[in-house]
Amino acid sequence: MYLAVKHLTGRPFYVIRESYYSDDHYCSRDLFDLGPDPTRYIVYPGGNSFFIDEIVEDGLIDRGAQLDDDELETIFWPFLKPDIKRALDCFRHRELSAKALRRGQSPQVKSTDFHIFDRRRLHFLKYGQMNQQRLNHLPSRVLATLYQKSRDEIEQSIFQMERVLRLRELKAYVFVIFDLQRFFTERFARENPEFLNQSDTDNYFLDTLCRLNSDPEFWAGMDGHTWLTNYLQRYLFMYFDNEFASRSLEEDFIRRFINAHRRHQPRARTFKVSLSEAAEIFSKSEAELKAMDRRDLVRLFRRKAQKIHPDKGGDHQAFVKLTEAYHRLLATKR
């Protein structure tokens, strides 16, 4: 059993659902409608205790569901009074850990057993990395989120995980999970999507979104749909309602520090733009560029970028060369 959220007339409504296996795939069905306020089914007899109203258990039994006290407690846990949650949290954590040990380790599954879109989302949400080269090596404990679950249960679970994303991460998250960088040849496509031609990026995103919306493998076990499904509409809003966030100097410093202390050093980048070409692009002498510190270089790049960015009517290729020159010089600054 799991908690599902649906929005009606702009308000969240809650439903207890379960996944079940049928015709070679997992489907989902409603078990009990909790309405807009699940707290009305929580009873507090006194002290730091609570129980779920019998009407819920009776309704689940009538639907043929197998009752599991831990699952039912997990469903109602977010709606408990804060002071009760604080008092019981340590005991609950201990009980769930003990139950997990009794059940044994996570199921031994392979990454390739699951849809690549689900794996991209889990990889980003777990590790926060735009580089997904190890996508096919996700550990079983991470993949357990997808194991023996219906499409609806997976989407409800990932939706809850996505709530921890910060606003400045949302557009980059969508860029990564739809693998939009594969459409571009620029070196900076993966790490700096904000420098790409945004009109092209928008078109690639919409095309990929529509393809996923009509992917029968991804939607196996669910009713057909002719419009963009609600499960994907949130990515449409994430993408177009937000902007790519540029990394700050502090974040660049932290990234360089981490890379410098890795056991395996990242491969050194090679650049096509020479120092003399960079000087011409930035309208500065080579000596002036060498004398600049990192902050001055960033300011110079931003001024140039604002003038020739494609969104400002500038030439796309000129902007690509400017960005290459910037990264080539940035690599020499400490």
Describe the overall structure.
This protein is mainly alpha-helical and 334 residues long. It folds into 3 domains: 102 residues, no CATH class; 130 residues, no CATH class; 82 residues, Helix Hairpins (Orthogonal Bundle). It is 47% helix and 12% strand. It has 14 helices and 5 strands. The strands form 2 sheets. A 3-stranded antiparallel beta sheet has the order 1-2-3. Strands 4-5 form a two-stranded antiparallel ribbon. Helix 11 packs across helix 14.
The domain count comes to: 3
Question: Which percent band covers the strand fraction?
Answer: 5-15%
Tell how many strands the DSSP assignment holds: 5
Q: Which of globular, elongated, flat, extended, rod-shaped describes the shape?
A: elongated
Low-confidence stretches: 264-270
Number of helices: 14
- The structure class reads mainly alpha
Mean pLDDT, all residues? 83
- What composes the largest sheet? 3 strands, antiparallel
Oligomer: single chain
| Percent range of helical residues | 40-55%
Radius of gyration from the alpha-carbon trace, in angstroms: 25 Å
What sequence of helices (H) and strands (E) makes up the elements? EEEEEHHHHHHHHHHHHHH
